[in-house]
Amino acid sequence: MGYLIIFFCTWIVNRVDYNRIGESAETIKLWYALPTLFGCAFLVVAISVLGWWRLVLFDQSKSGPKWVWILPIAIAGIILNNFLGVQFSKLSFELLLWSTLGGIGVGFGEEMITRGSMIVGLRSRFPESKVWLISTLLFSALHVPNILFGLPLLNMPVQVLATFMFGSGLYVIRRISGTLILSMILHGLWDSSLCLSDATGGASSAFLGAVYPIAIIFSIAFLLKNRNSNNLRQST
Length: 236
Description:
This protein has about 240 residues and is mainly alpha-helical. The chain has helices at about 1-15, 25-50, 55, 70-85, 95-125, 130-140, 155-175, 180-200, 210-225. The chain has one domain (about 1-225). Helices cover about 70% and strands about 0% of the residues.
């Protein structure tokens, strides 16, 4: 909750226009990088006080069949394709810097609160199937307030559905890798690649939209494959 309060307060103070976040280095700094980095500073302190670093970053074991690794490989390929569409002639040092810092902030912050600390808390009370569902629904819900900052109302259900599918994929990636770190990296690179494409007038990957059905298909397959496995438990 503290992360979200800091994040949205920073948006309010900086008068964010959601539809213009990726417009320039300045908008990326004020509306993308700084809100997430301020929130991350809070998370670092909170998790250190709780002593949860090992629990939020690492599972007790890896889970799932080897073929599920196609999912992070596919996501990485689409991200790479996004970066290849960036107009590098328009890429300044400031734009690269703030996009990178914003990617770090989003990757660390959103993953830490939804597929990190939230999962630790949920696993003490629920079976893993409900841990996935609740944490991913809440990840989607984080994006609902965007309508207060300029996201068209009709676009909100689409964004919520897309984030649910993408979030499911990131949850599965944590499970198969045994760590939150890979999900953090892919999430941060995904957002940064989109910001840089927007800011430089580049073309996003032609396969951009494919990431969502790929993520949910592999997630469903993973969950069905593991439905009879023992529920993961972590002590808090």
